[in-house]
Design goal:
Layout: H1 11-21, H2 31-43, E1 47-50, E2 56-60, E3 72-77, E4 99-102, E5 105-108, H3 115-129, E6 138-143, H4 151-155, E7 165-168, E8 176-181, E9 183-192, E10 195-197, E11 202-210, E12 215-216, H5 228-236, H6 239-243, E13 246-253, E14 258-259, E15 263-270, H7 274-292, E16 300-306, E17 311-313, H8 315-327, E18 331-335, E19 343-355, E20 358-367, H9 370-385, E21 390-397, H10 407-420, E22 425-429, H11 435-441, E23 446-449, E24 454-455, E25 463-465, H12 466-481
Parallel strand pairs: 3-6, 3-7, 7-23, 8-22
Antiparallel strand pairs: 1-2, 2-6, 4-5, 5-25, 9-20, 9-21, 10-17, 11-15, 11-16, 12-14, 13-15, 13-19, 18-19, 19-20, 24-25
Length: 486
């Protein structure tokens, strides 16, 4: 890891981030980071608790003169999204993130950076360790598994925390103060199919869709980014009618919360249609590239000959599933009627896996309106059930309703304007934050979310802005100085 990172200002923040990024911390594989945080708190001599689901709570007394201020919960999640390009050699289970400085940005070498939400975690660690920063009583809450189910926030019981204010450090625009977020639900469609022996007159091809940016399936769902699963399905859709195309395998996308960047399909076509197939693939690919050239300048579709696959999927199932994937909503479903420019409801067609007689399709539907969320979830359910899939709805979590009368919002709005000479953007976001879930057991807690500029989260293009981190750090310190009295 480059020593450049540890020399950046503020050094307290970047050094803790470097320490954190040396520890593998994938969602649902947080054992090492939980142990790391527990040891960190205990080594500081602070009360440190790991609850029954794995959340780490570290409590620090108020600094001198701040004892009469409201106790503050500072909250971030420990896990990070592990994404890399398919040709990148990197083992997230054993390797720390390899970071470097690129102008005003910190990046990782061909993987996600973990600034989401590692910069929030590092902020809290730096404050817990400091003997100079003014602050009230702090309850540091480090949750687990935010990225793949929010099970840490869901498992946190009432009565553990005493704070009256919660600062969630998981917003990715430094001029934004978050007051609300979307809820979400996972849609999983599965079915089995019969495999057939590939006829002798067919030949094999591999189709690779790659070079897409990917990104956060909530915060960036409105940007018009390409979805590799949708692009692949367009290429395959009329293949049987045109050149006898039969699908052997499809492997597209990855995590539900990441816009899919890559998809690979192994297919068989009638040998006599080889020239027509290659021509049609080139024409279709060029048309899609032209459509997406502004947002996806590096999109590439590579079609190459391969050994003929031994088996292909049942034709009736193939036609049904390609039609279902075409019909499945992807992207923005509805914009908010109440909040300008806010996505209300969306879906990410995140994962398509067809192999060895099994189909698995994963989606993540988000919405700030519960009824709209379930409307879209049932739309997707009906779409996939029509092609014989079993559909499971799971991982349902609530949104966070804005409170524009929040006392801490008023404090932070004034502080931001005093520090920066302009008003902050007070807004709800289309990402899933843990505030709504935490609020179910702590309904009287005054909650707010903010953070530094982070771009490309959930993709290998993730990067954190150095100058923004400096601006954000000053804001954090001023907020802690100005927490209201009890």
């Amino acid at each position: 890891m480059s020593t450049e990172i540890r020399q950046l200002e503020p050094t307290q923040l970047w050094n803790k981030f470097a320490d954190l990024n040396a520890v593998p911390r994938a969602s649902k594989k947080e054992e090492r980071i939980i142990a790391f945080m527990k040891e960190f708190g205990e080594n500081l001599g602070l009360e440190t608790v790991v609850d029954e689901v794995g959340n780490v709570i570290i409590k620090k007394p108020a600094s001198k003169g701040m004892e009469n201020r409201t106790t503050v919960v500072m909250q971030s999640h420990l896990d990070m999204v592990h994404q890399k390009n398919s040709d990148t050699v990197f083992d997230f289970d054993t390797q720390g993130i390899d970071m470097y400085v690129d102008g005003d940005w910190v990046r990782a070498k061909e993987t996600t950076l973990g600034a989401d939400n590692g910069l929030g975690v590092a902020t809290i660690m730096a404050i817990l360790e400091s003997t100079e920063i003014e602050h009230p009583v702090i309850e540091a809450l480090f949750t687990i598994d935010e990225e793949t189910g929010m099970t840490g926030a869901m498992g946190l019981k009432g009565g553990i925390l005493e704070g009256g204010i919660l600062l969630n450090l998981d917003t990715e625009e430094d001029d934004e103060i978050g007051v609300g977020c979307a809820g979400g639900i996972d849609i999983t469609a599965t079915r089995a199919y019969n495999e057939e022996e590939t006829p002798e007159f067919k030949i094999g091809f591999v189709i690779d869709v790659k070079g897409l940016q990917g990104g956060h399936s909530g915060m960036q769902i409105h940007e018009g980014l390409g979805n590799a699963n949708k692009i692949m399905n367009r290429l395959l859709f009329d293949g049987f009618e045109n050149y006898g195309l039969r699908i052997s395998e499809i492997d597209g996308g990855g995590l539900r919360n990441a816009i899919p960047r890559e998809s690979k399909a192994i297919v068989a076509i009638d040998a006599i249609h080889e020239d027509a197939f290659l021509l049609e693939m080139a024409l279709a690919s060029n048309a899609i590239k032209k459509e997406l050239q502004t947002m996806e300048p590096d999109l590439d579709v590579v079609v190459s000959k391969c050994e003929t696959p031994k088996t292909i999927m049942d034709l009736g199932v193939q036609e049904g599933v390609t039609r279902a994937l075409y019909a499945a909503q992807n992207g923005v479903f509805r914009m908010s009627a109440e909040i300008p420019d806010l996505v209300e409801t969306s879906n990410n067609l995140a994962r398509v896996l067809i192999k060895d007689g099994d189909i698995k399709i994963l989606c993540l539907t988000r919405s700030s309106v519960e009824s709209s969320k379930m409307d879209l979830a049932n739309t997707l359910r009906a779409t996939f059930e029509l092609t014989g899939c079993e559909v499971e709805l799971s991982g349902d979590y609530p949104g966070w309703a804005p409170n524009m009368d929040s006392a801490i919002l008023k404090v932070m709005t004034k502080l931001y304007e005093d520090l920066n000479g302009e008003k902050p953007h007070v807004a709800a976001c289309h990402a899933g934050l843990e505030c709504g879930i935490l609020g179910t057991n702590y309904p009287d807690m005054d909650m707010i979310s903010f953070g530094p500029n982070i771009k490309g989260a959930h993709s290998p293009d993730e990067r954190a802005q150095i100058s923004s981190a400096q601006k954000y750090w000053k804001f954090v310190l001023e907020i802690l100085k100005h927490i209201p009295e009890n």
